[in-house]
Amino acid sequence: MKNILVLIALAAALAVTSFLWPRGGETLPGRPLAGLEIKYLLTGNTAIGRWGDDQYRQFFSEGGVTYYAQRGKRSTRGKWRITRGNDAYESWWSGADDNWVRFDVRLTPDGYAWVDSTGTIHPFELVAGEKLVWDDG
Predict the structure, then answer these.
(1) pTM for this entry
(2) Residue 28 predicted with pLDDT over 80
(3) How far lies 8's CA from each of 1, 11, 13, 128, in Å?
(4) Residues 45, 128: contact at Cβ < 8 Å?
(5) What is the C-alpha separation between 137 and 133, in angstroms, rounded?
(6) What is the rounded average pLDDT for all residues in the chain?
(7) Which residues are CB-neighbours of 98 under 8 A, at least 6 positions away?
(8) CA distance 25 to 96
(9) I need a labelling partner for 40 at 20 to 30 A (CA). Which of 10, 76, 103, 107 fits?
């Protein structure tokens, strides 16, 4: 039931924010999401996309734990948070210099996208619940 309510709320948010779309002057597509929007969007859901040549799925737990799975590779456990003050998404991965890394999250005409520190756009779709396993059947 919670998953259905989340999807309904996300659809409503998309409908409302489509009226708030930037009309020019931005170099990136869509609009950046604020911290509370990002938290609501990601919590309990899985992002599915492509990072470079690799397909991935990333689940975001309510408690700030995240799991990142690439097709054909072992999954990785990390942490995620919304920073205080600047309303940004950050993730932390063991062995990745032990630093939190910031990503902008944007609502785009095609769905959602991460924007890394180089300005590279990484589109993703969002599905309700934990969906870390590919269904190739």
Answers:
(1) 0.77
(2) no
(3) 11, 5, 9, 11
(4) yes
(5) 11
(6) 81
(7) 92
(8) 35
(9) 76
Query: CA–CA separation, 44 vs 6, rounded Å?
Result: 9
pLDDT at residue number 47:
98
Domain boundaries, the chain: 2-20+32-128
Look at the domain 2-20+32-128 and name its fold. Answer: Lipocalin (2.40.128)
**CB 56 within 8 Å of CB 48:** yes
Burial (CB count within 10 angstroms: exposed 0-12, middle 13-18, buried 19+), residue 120: exposed
The two tokens of residue 121 are 């756009």
Q: What secondary structure letter does DSSP report for 38?
A: H
The residue written with tokens 């059947």 in the block is: 137
Asked if 117 contacts 130 with a C-beta cutoff of 8 angstroms, the reply is no
Query: What does the pLDDT look like over 104-134, one tens digit per residue?
Result: 999 999 999 999 999 999 999 999 999 998 8
